[in-house]
Write a structure and sequence with these properties.
The structure holds 3 protein chains of 3 kinds. By secondary structure, chain A is of the alpha/beta class. Chain A folds into 2 domains: 253 residues, P-loop containing nucleotide triphosphate hydrolases (Rossmann fold, 3-Layer(aba) Sandwich), CATH 3.40.50; 77 residues, no CATH class. Chain A has 12 helices and 12 strands. Chain A has an 8-stranded mixed sheet with strand order 6-7-8-3-9-10-12-11, with helices on both faces. In chain A, strands 2-1-4-5 form a 4-stranded antiparallel sheet. In chain A, helix 4 crosses helix 5, helix 4 runs parallel beside helix 7 and helix 5 packs across helix 7. The relative contact order of chain B is 0.13. By secondary structure, chain B is an all-alpha fold. In chain B, helix 1 crosses helix 11, helix 3 packs parallel to helix 11 and helix 7 packs antiparallel against helix 9. By secondary structure, chain C is of the alpha/beta class. Helices cover 30% and strands 22% of the residues of chain C. Chain C has 11 helices and 12 strands. In chain C, a hairpin with a 2-residue loop joins strand 4 and strand 5. The two termini of chain C are 37 Å apart. The chains are: A alpha/beta, B mainly alpha, C alpha/beta. Chains in contact: A-B, A-C, B-C. Chains B and C meet through helix 8 and helix 9 of B and helix 3 and helix 4 of C. Bound molecules: adenosine-5'-triphosphate (2 copies), iron/sulfur cluster (SF4) and magnesium ion (MG) (2 copies). The site of one magnesium ion has 4 residues of chain C, from helix 2.
Chain lengths: 341, 301, 342
């Protein structure tokens, strides 16, 4: 684990977020560690329901009843976010950390124009604006136009007066990003920003995020279930499975030589034109129920390498330079793969 | 909107608190609904077994007991618990028999109206086109008339009587289930499982009756029970106006009307049938709300 | 034209579908124009027996509409669909019903496509019942059990309801329902789009196995080029209701000719990225099908558009063996993919 050096922007450790439901306690995030460095793009991948959104919702302080953060620390720029009061948290949210929601199409307020929604953020978080009066209004407008222009909305001046429904899905997604970027956050958490979009539009949005990251020097957490997106846009990747991080490391290394059996299975099961005529090898079975999980490797029931020694809580193990994986057979798996090649 | 979210951050205590409170609320609500259902059931049993329960013949007049007060008042008699009306008839017995009219009319109207409504609504929503245009127009026109005035007009034309009341109310009542069914059908017919049935070669009839109807029945049942309370009030209103079942048959609306002239001296003549109406209508309303919560998945976690 | 009517199992000829909006008396009196969405316009192609034809395109371009019009789930506005030599569009109800046994569909949404109030046994048994394919209830039950096991479920699942299953399992139920009547041709309308990557692979594997085993022919709709590229023998690319390019999968993947196909190929994020691919940046959003652009429908986003593209629609031309495309600038051999930096 890297210690809190200058380069670390966000450090989450031992995060545990649970939901109290009628059926029992759903342990959606169980002992997750995340480190985000300044200026880097971290990719977060994993099956639906693996806890990606809940993890970063917890960082943002957005977990609501019946959910609660049960344990762990969230250190942002040396400050423990869990110790902050709601007011202080609100000030950080939006100013220092911004998140675009998974469903941008419903996350915009349909009753306010796009301009008004950008203004709200600026009003709340921008201290550089003139104090009041016409100068302030003009400055806000200029910033709003600038933000829309930045995300590639044509004729942003006129578009400010329009309502969300007057934009297409891809444009709304870009507006969400514009709103998130309005206060120049240090960390942008983009929760599946392109899942609902078509490939050509998806490429536009992702390139936009990469551009802005380079220009503003911010850090980005890109949540997705598309390993291709991660491969092209993120330096590091974190793979989640059933509420835990199962593997993390530099993207290129993880993708070229996955260590955890789940990551391997995931990569092996992506249909690719290059594999035409060959069989793909899907991971059999299904994700376990997150209620009352027994103390065992969470991938146990689907894992081709599973054995009796997997029936205990498994900790993250070093798995190469700057890499970790949650599997007792990390070495074993690595050698096996070499044997196969 | 995350960036400008002002919701409080969750901390352990309020969360536990609110969960507790919400569960308590759900529980209390269910108990209330359950209690109401029991009240309604009691009324139904009362109506069915009226001859065995009623202490007296509801239609036997006894001028010596004219306007006799309830048992616990000066001049009362424990054999005539709720007192007697202007013709000396036992009010309790008349209320017990009156439940038959209220519940029978309510149930019959809702049953017939719902059946018509389901057929018309399914046809309009599924077949669309001119069928939908015609049915929707008729529905719009009927909705334009005030309900009670419409029923009064019809009763005036057809003359009083049990069957006529039912007819007069059904004439307009079917519109309500029809609209519900049409809306639900329109939404359901677009679902892929309906399309799948068509792709498998199912006939329109099969799709309407077997694929769509079972899936839209719960909202219809809920609406129908709620409407039953309205219908009971309407029947009472018609009887109150003298357009309902004809004397001497006991009916709550007519009983309230009978007592009007003596309301200052002999309050019990109008009050007890009034309370009966209130209890039954309230019971049905609360019970149907519980029913809605139980049926409507949006109320589930 | 690629469709060889003699060898094709399915031959779609100049098929169009226009959705008409509501237009009641009030609209008419107030002079409002009826909205018309031309979801599919003048599409022709053939599918040979045993083949998988991949159909790819952006959301709203008319893929589902095309699939459904072929099965007459939505009545085509114009054109013919010839299945095994029979013009399906001209069939009466009884003949169409018989035809439906041979042409089936698998849907995208594993939640909406199963009736929540029917058990698995009833859902999978419905086609047998509708077409009278089995004589006794036990025979029907046996067939259902066999089918359900074939798609990887257990006979113990038969009396459960759809909500008791996961997305992938539900998709298996949908597949069993489509295949139990032994059809020959299946429209797969994005059958894996709603599923997780690891479950997607399971369903793709199942669909390829079943195709081999039962000798099926697929029209496989998807917006995922990886899936299409992996599965299909031929690929048709759709843009705003038209097929802009079609050909054998290798030619489409390695030598796409239409500017839209080229941008589509370059936009796919690649997992095994050694070098970053050349990128074709499209600007602008998909135009509204309510008011499609004049001329070539792609000209509003096309980096190669010239004057004629705005005025005149290009015709479909042969550009290689079984490969066709519709673009004014095909002959100039311009490729967006060539040396656009790395
Ligand atoms: N309000 C809630 N009540 C109960 N459980 C919840 C709630 N919100 C989330 N969960 C549970 O938390 C788990 C993690 O959910 P999360 O939204 O983080 O998944 P995800 O990885 O973002 O998936 P996706 O890719 O589908 O967005 C899920 O299994 C879900 O069941
Ligand atoms: N029943 C309908 N009534 C009116 N318009 C429709 C109807 N169904 C589809 N459309 C319109 O026709 C066009 C094509 O829709 P279609 O569903 O065929 O697209 P698609 O390519 O399948 O998209 P997706 O990838 O999102 O499923 C869209 O503009 C859509 O709005
Ligand atoms: S015809 Fe013109 S606009 Fe259309 S794709 Fe070709 S070059 Fe582009
Ligand atoms: Mg999520
Ligand atoms: Mg579709």
């Amino acid at each position: 684990m890297m210690q809190n050096d200058e380069n670390t922007l966000l450090e989450v450790s031992g995060l545990r977020t649970v939901f109290d439901t009628r059926a029992g306690v759903v342990c959606a995030v169980d002992g997750v560690d995340v480190t985000v460095r300044r200026g880097e793009c971290l990719g977060v991948v994993g099956e639906s329901g693996s806890g990606k959104s809940v993890t970063f919702g917890s960082v943002m302080g957005l977990v609501r009843a019946p959910g609660r953060i049960d344990a762990g620390s969230i250190i942002f720029e040396g400050q423990d976010l869990r110790a902050l009061g709601p007011g202080q948290m609100r000030a950080i949210r939006g100013r220092d950390i911004a998140m675009t929601m998974q469903d941008a199409l419903t996350a915009l307020n349909p009753a306010l124009t796009v301009g008004e929604q950008i203004r709200e953020v600026l009003e709340a978080h921008d201290e550089e604006l003139p104090a009041r009066g016409a100068a302030r209004r003009r400055a806000i407008r200029e910033r709003a136009v600038e933000m829309l222009g930045l995300v590639g909305i044509p004729s942003p001046g006129e578009r400010l007066r329009q309502y969300p429904h007057e934009f297409s899905g891809g444009m709304r997604q870009r507006i969400m990003i514009a709103i998130a970027l309005a206060s120049r956050p240090k960390l942008l958490i983009a929760d599946e920003p392109t899942t609902a979009l078509d490939v050509t539009i998806q490429a536009q949005v992702l390139e936009l995020i990469s551009d802005i990251r380079a220009r503003l020097g911010m850090s980005v957490v890109l949540i997705t279930h598309d390993l291709g997106v991660v491969a092209e846009h993120c330096e590091r990747v974190m793979v989640m499975y059933a509420g835990q991080v199962v593997e993390q490391g530099p993207t290129r290394d993880v993708i070229s030589a996955p260590q955890h059996p789940y990551t391997k299975g995931l990569l092996a099961s992506i249909p690719r034109p290059a594999l035409r005529g060959e069989r793909i090898h899907p991971i059999q079975g299904q994700v376990p129920d997150l209620i009352d999980l027994p103390p065992q490797c969470r991938f146990y029931s689907r894992c081709p390498l599973a054995g009796p020694d997997c029936l205990k809580n498994i900790a993250m193990q070093p798995a190469g330079p700057r890499r970790m994986a949650r599997c007792i057979r990390v070495e074993n798996a690595a050698t096996r793969q070499e044997a196969e090649v | 909107m995350t960036a400008i979210d002002n919701g409080p951050a969750a901390s352990a205590d309020p969360v536990v608190n609110s969960i507790f409170r919400r569960n308590m609320a759900t529980f209390a609500e269910n108990r209330l609904a359950l209690g109401s259902a029991v009240v309604v059931l009691l009324f139904v049993l009362m109506a069915v077994f009226a001859p065995f329960i009623a202490p007296h013949d509801p239609n036997v007049t006894d001028l010596f007991r004219r306007l006799q007060p309830p048992a616990w008042q000066e001049g009362g008699d424990w054999a005539y618990l709720l007192g007697c009306d202007a013709l000396g008839r036992d009010i309790l017995s008349r209320i017990i028999y009156g439940a038959r009219i209220s519940i029978f009319v309510g149930a019959a109207v809702v049953l017939v109206a719902t059946t018509i409504g389901i057929v018309a609504g399914l046809a309009a929503g599924f077949l669309r086109g001119w069928v939908d245009t015609v049915i929707s127009r008729v529905v719009d026109i009927l909705l334009g008339f005030p309900y009670l005035i419409f029923a009064i007009g019809l009763m005036a034309m057809m003359g009083p009587g049990l069957i006529n009341i039912i007819l007069a109310l059904v004439y307009k009542e079917w519109v309500i289930p029809c609209r519900v069914v049409r809306g639900e059908t329109l939404a359901t017919r677009e679902l892929e499982y309906v399309e799948a049935a068509r792709a498998l070669g199912a006939s329109s009839r099969h799709i309407m009756m077997r694929e769509i109807l079972p899936n839209i029945l719960s909202p219809v049942i809920v609406v129908s029970t709620i409407r039953m309370a309205h219908v009971i009030i309407l029947e009472a209103s018609l009887s109150f106006l003298g357009l309902g079942v004809q004397p001497p048959t006991a009916s709550w609306g007519a009983m309230v009307a009978d007592g009007r002239a003596f309301i200052m001296q002999s309050w019990w003549v109008s009050t007890f049938p009034g309370i009966a109406i209130l209890l039954l209508v309230l019971g049905i309303n609360v019970a149907s709300q519980g029913l809605r919560d139980a049926f409507d998945p949006r109320f589930h976690e | 034209m690629i469709a060889q009517a003699d060898t094709a199992l399915l031959d779609v000829q100049r098929l169009s579908k226009t959705y008409l909006g509501r237009h009641n008396l009030a609209d008419r009196l107030s002079g409002r124009k009826q909205t018309r969405v031309q979801a599919v316009s003048d599409v022709s192609f053939g599918v040979r027996p045993g083949e998988i034809l991949g159909l790819i395109g952006e959301s709203g371009c008319g893929k589902s509409t095309l699939g459904r019009s072929i099965l007459r789930l939505h009545e085509p506005s114009a054109g013919k669909v010839v299945f095994d030599g029979v013009d399906v569009t001209g069939l009466d109800d009884a003949a169409m019903k018989a035809m439906r046994r041979r042409m089936q569909i698998i849907f995208q949404d594993p939640y909406a496509s199963l009736n929540p109030r029917r058990t698995v046994a009833e859902i999978v048994g419905l086609p047998l019942k509708l077409h009278g394919l089995t004589k006794t209830p036990t025979e029907a039950r046996d067939k259902v059990v066999a089918m359900v096991e074939k798609v990887g479920l257990k006979s113990a699942h038969l009396d459960r309801y759809p909500h008791q299953f996961s997305g992938g399992q539900r998709q298996r139920i949908g597949i069993a329902r489509a295949l139990v009547s032994n059809p020959e041709f299946i429209v797969c309308d994005e059958p894996v789009s709603a599923l997780d990557v690891s479950i997607q692979a399971q369903i793709i594997e199942l669909l390829t196995d079943l195709k081999q085993e039962m000798g099926l022919t697929y029209l496989f709709i998807s917006h995922d080029i990886s899936v299409i590229g992996y599965l299909s023998d031929r690929v048709a690319v759709m843009y705003l209701g038209e097929i802009v390019e079609m050909g054998p999968v290798e030619s489409i993947l390695t030598g796409p000719r239409h500017p839209y196909t080229q941008s589509l190929m370059s936009a796919v994020p690649e997992v095994d990225a050694g070098v970053r691919k050349a990128r074709v940046r499209l600007t602008g959003d998909l135009p509204s099908p309510l008011s499609p652009p004049s001329g070539c429908k792609f000209h509003t986003r096309c980096p190669l558009a010239i004057d004629i593209c705005r005025r005149q629609a290009p015709v479909t031309e042969r550009v290689g063996n079984g490969h066709q495309a519709a673009c004014h600038r095909l002959n100039e051999n311009l490729s967006l993919l060539d040396p656009v930096g790395t």
